Amino acid sequence: MAQSAEDVARESIECFNADDFDRLRSILADDSYEEELSTQRRLEGADAQIDAAKAWKQAFPDGRGTVTGIYAAGDTVTIEVTWEGTQSGPMQTPDGQELPPSNRHGAVKACQVIETEGGKIKATRHYFDLITLLRQIGAMEGAAAGA
Predict the structure, then answer these.
(1) Domain ranges of the chain
(2) In terms of CATH architecture, what is 5-88+96-136?
(3) How far is CA 116 from CA 31, 59, 73, in A?
(4) 132 near 108, Cβ under 8 Å?
(5) Which of 16, 77, 122, 140 could cross-link 5 (Cys pair, CB 3.0–4.6 Å)?
(6) HSE-up of 44 (CA within 13 Å, CB side)?
């Protein structure tokens, strides 16, 4: 029996937290895609999504997501997540530049709308506050949110 959309969504966050990219790959449909709206990237296919997840982990090796809410309707689920970690690795920007490690902590709230099919993730739309994150790690001027 296939996992519920809610179970698959939770598992995707658990996989990221555990650096278990093989397991994450196993729950992505081959032709899945992710729209990372804050960076204006569309990640076509499971391999592109895994590469992006690994890049976030390179920038934030202790990075993790905490699910704070989950709302399911059939094969679609919306999860609220708080992402946090210390930028102790280089971070690639959407325009291909590299931000050196800042060793500063960042935390932002996010939502992912995940569509599943047959127990696998078919599509993800990921919304998060990139500007606040960049301010928190010192990559942009301005006060960090909550500081």
Answers:
(1) 5-88+96-136
(2) Roll (3.10)
(3) 12, 28, 11
(4) yes
(5) 77
(6) 0
Tokens of 86: 């210390």
SS3 of the chain? CCCCHHHHHHHHHHHHHCCCHHHHHHCEEEEEEEEECCCCEEEECHHHHHHHHHHHHHHCCCCEEEEEEEEEECCEEEEEEEEEEECCCCEECCCCCEECCCCCEEEEEEEEEEEEECCEEEEEEEEECHHHHHHHCCCCCCCCCCC
